Amino acid sequence: MTFCFLTQACIGPMQLFGVGLDLPQRIRSGDVALDLVRPAPLQLWCLSEDLGRAAFLFLARSIPPALAGAALFGIVTPRAPAAFLASVTLGVVVSFGWRYLVALASCWVMDDRGLATLSLVLTTFFSGLMLPLTIFPGWFGSLARALPWAAMVQAPSDIYLGTAEPAHALAFQALWAAVLLALGALLTRAARRKVVIQGG
User: Fold this and answer.
1) What pLDDT, in 10s, does the model give residues 68-81?
2) pTM, whole model, 2 decimals?
3) Three-class secondary structure assignment of 154-191
4) Is the pLDDT of residue 2 over 60?
């Protein structure tokens, strides 16, 4: 029961059902050309906006249902509250890192809807939102728990429930956050050199 409420609480902050960035629209309109020449780095600017969005949704979309679940169904309290909050923050950064890559790919494709749909399928299945990744057997379960999407829902849930060592789970999330942000920085640099603007 607690896991169900945790997964629902992650939907808003992690933006699990969509890209949640206006970057594809700015690419289509041509406004991204201005974004790329501003002194503020595009990736950092988008990350700042996304962290603000996630913080609001955590307060408005995650906490009220969790409190209702605690009152009605008696869900358990987190084993390590500070580690859980750190894990949620890292989960948001990992989610942003992935969604930024998907959004920025719009610089090179004419229609981003296919990539967005693929991202939705991968995120909802491999994050632990639909099913706990711990029930997947053998090599497939090991692979699913090693992919970046596991850092979005499964890792924070494991820390909350005390089924994973917090230091190990946080290190796993931090690694994927660093990898995805680094890839995003490289892709942004490539977009500066060659970008196809569809709207202008």
Assistant:
1) 888 888 888 888 89
2) 0.90
3) HHHHHHHHCCCCHHHHHHHHHHHHHHHHHHHHHHHHHH
4) yes
CA distance 10 to 52: 15
Cβ atoms of residues 13 and 57 within 8 Å: yes
Q: Burial letters for 32-65: b for 16+ Cβ neighbours within 10 Å, e otherwise?
A: beebeeeeeebbeebbeebeebbeebbeebbeee
Gap between the Cα atoms of 130 and 124, Å rounded: 6
Give the residue, 105 or 151, on which the prediction is more confident: 151
Q: Name the DSSP class of 38.
A: S
* Residue 129 backbone dihedrals phi, psi, to 5 degrees: -70, -45
**What is the DSSP annotation of 51-101?**
HHHHHHHIIIIIHHHHHHHHHHH-PPPPSSHHHHHHHHHHHHHHHHHHHHH
Residue 43: C-alpha distances to residues 18, 165, 185 (Å): 18, 31, 7
Cα–Cα distance, 160 to 1 (Å, whole number): 13
Give the whole-angstrom CA distance, residue 178 versus residue 90.
10
Q: How many CB atoms lie within 10 A of CB 2?
A: 18
CB 153 within 8 A of CB 145: no
